[in-house]
Every structure is written in C-alpha cells, then in structure tokens.
Amino acid sequence: MNNSDAATPLKSHRVSRLLMQFAWANVSLNIVSLLLTSLTAIAPTMEAPLQGLQQILLIVTIPVALILIVLLLVWLYRLHVDLKVLFNDYPITPGGAVARFIIPIYSIWGIWNTLSTFANRFNQEGGESAKCAEYINPLNGGLYALTITSNILNREYSRIQRESPEIEPLWLFLLNDLVALGLSCLLLLMVKSMSSAVVAKARQPK
Questions:
Q1: What is the DSSP letter of 204?
Q2: Cα separations (Å) of 196 from 10, 52, 86, 134?
Q3: Which of 16, 85, 116, 132 has a CA 20 to 30 Å removed from the CA of 186?
Q4: Which residue pairs, CB below 8 angstroms and at least 24 apart, start in 73-79?
Q5: What Å distances lie between residue 144 and 46, 79, 109, CA to CA?
Q6: What is the pLDDT at residue 161?
Q7: Counting Cβ atoms within 10 Å, is residue 178 exposed (0-12), middle (13-18) or buried (19+)?
Q8: What is the DSSP secondary-structure string of 153-177?
Q9: What confidence tens digit (pLDDT) does each residue in 166-198 have?
C-alpha cells in the first residue's frame, strides 16, 4: 500500500499541524517586536507613541508563548509514541522525551540527546525520511548557540539595570529580539523537519 497513513495512523499528526500554526504566530510576533525595537533605536522620538503598541504586543505574546510550550510538549510526547510504533527498538520513551525537555539541568543534555537521537536514526533510514531529517543536527547546534547567547544578553541586561537603572540599552534590546527571532525560526524548522520525517517513514511500505 503506497499510502500507509490509514494503516499506521500518526498520533502526532493533528497536534503537529496546530503546533506549526502557533510556531508561525510566534515568528510573526518576534518580527513585529524586532521592527518596533528597530524603529525606537532609529528614531528615539517615536518611543512614546510606540510604547502602547509594545504593551499590546506583550499581552498577545505571553499567551501565545505559553500555548506554544504546552503544544510542544504534547507533540513531543505523541511524536515519540509514533516513533515507538515505527521503530520497535527506538531508545527514548514518550515520557523520557518530555522529561529531557522540562527537567532543569538534565535538559541541558536531554534536549541535545533527544534531537540527535532522532536525527541519527532517520539518517540511517535513507530515502525521503532521511532527507527530511538531514538538517536536524545543524538546527540542534544552532538552538544551543542561540540559547547560550540569549542567556548572556539577559545577564548583561541585569548587570546594566543594577549599575545604571536609568539607562535603556536599546542595542541590547535589538540583539535580544534578533536572537528571539532566530530561536523561533529554529523551532519552526525543527518541528517541520521532524514531523515531515515521521510522516515519510510512516508512508514507507512495510
């Protein structure tokens, strides 16, 4: 059977589509934030008129980000349910995958392990599924690099606030928005690549 979606239904399929929609929304909100910060940096006189827009953006961004996190964890769990069906010997359980993402300290290794295990398994498969997964390891490296950069920027902002609370470092806000946009794009590409690889694997004849 060429189309095995009916024979091997994917638990992660519906939630992955919803997750992608919220990932796109997150990217869009980060683009708007970057534009507003850029306008403030270029034309400081516009800071007051733009402040209202920035507050509205924050009000919208917070619930979108929270929903995105919940959807990501649900998708991650269901994706690994699918992986256990597609690969009888897949080494990471659904609960183990979620734990690797949410447990502090452990997640430093766990996220890398989850993504690299997925990429390496699909790269061994060959064909369309391997093609879908070929960028996951580079995206994984980019995710860690941008996360470290974001932490450095946040620490620098905290230092400036302690030493000179009256200063608003627009250059730091701009860099932080760029990093946030990069992280949101990486998340979008990661979810798309992993979902596509699983769908391609499920469609392979048994």
A1: S
A2: 12, 40, 14, 11
A3: 85
A4: 73/98, 73/101, 73/102, 74/15, 75/12, 75/15, 75/16, 75/19, 75/191, 76/101, 76/114, 78/11, 78/12, 78/15, 79/11, 79/12, 79/16, 79/194, 79/195, 79/198
A5: 35, 22, 10
A6: 79
A7: middle
A8: HHHHHHHHHHH-TT---HHHHHHHH
A9: 777 778 889 999 999 999 999 999 999 999 999
The pTM is what?
0.87
Q: Which tokens in the block code for residue 82?
A: 């699918």
Distance, CA of 58 to CA of 186 (rounded, Å): 21
Tokens of 48: 């007051």
| pLDDT score, position 3 | 40
What counts of helices (H) and strands (E) characterise the chain? 7, 0
- Alpha-carbon gap, residue 183 to 196, rounded angstroms: 20
* CA pseudo-torsion sign 45, 56, 32, 169: positive
Cβ burial of 84 (10 Å; 0-12, 13-18, 19+) is: middle
The residue to which tokens 């649900």 are assigned? 74
% of the chain exceeding 70 in pLDDT:
95
Token pair in block for residue 157: 């902002």
* DSSP code at position 45: G
